[in-house]
Structures are given as structure tokens and as C-alpha cells.
Amino acid sequence: MPKLTEAQKQERAQKAQTFDYMSDEAYEEVMSQLDCDCEPYSDVYTLPRWNAQGYMIKKGSKGIKKIVYLKSKEKDAQGNETGRTITRPKATVLFCRCQVKKYQKQ
User: Which of 22, 24, 54, 64 pairs as cysteine with 94 (C-beta 3.0–4.6 A)?
Assistant: First the structure.
């Protein structure tokens, strides 16, 4: 995998802080499981989003398990889109700002 330039790293970090869709129900569900002052959508992300921003999860941290629903285009056996949109569940784990630390350069 090629090394990223600083501009590419900044772009990934910026994109990792944006959301295409925000749900009040998801916000409340995550808030009910937090025992700190972190806010969903601003302080709570998945591991890939934290990594893109230059953070790693602290050892021993326990994440919040959440089911998310992903929308995608249905494809036929040949790999062509059929025009139908399907929704499928996916399990994910969320971590708050209290559970991460900045990568240390070595």
C-alpha cells in the first residue's frame, strides 16, 4: 500500500468526521450507553474513522456494539445492478473520545 501524503491524510481525517445520515434514534441509543460527556456524531466513531483521524484505541477499551443498516444497489449473477435498493444489517463497534489516544510517531 503506498504511503499517503499529508494532504491525503488531512482529507481522510476530514471525511472521517462527516456523516451522510444522522438518526435521532441512534443518537439516543448511543447516549444511553455512554458513561462520559462524549457526544455521538462528534466524539463517538468506529475504529476505521478514529484511525483515519490519527487515533488508536486504548488497550482494554470496550466499545459500544451497534447494528447499522446499509443501503446498496442489488446486483444480478453477472454483477449488473438491477435497479433495486436493498438494506442489510451490519454489526459495528463504536468508541468514544475517552477511549482513544493519538498515534505516536516512531
Answer: 64
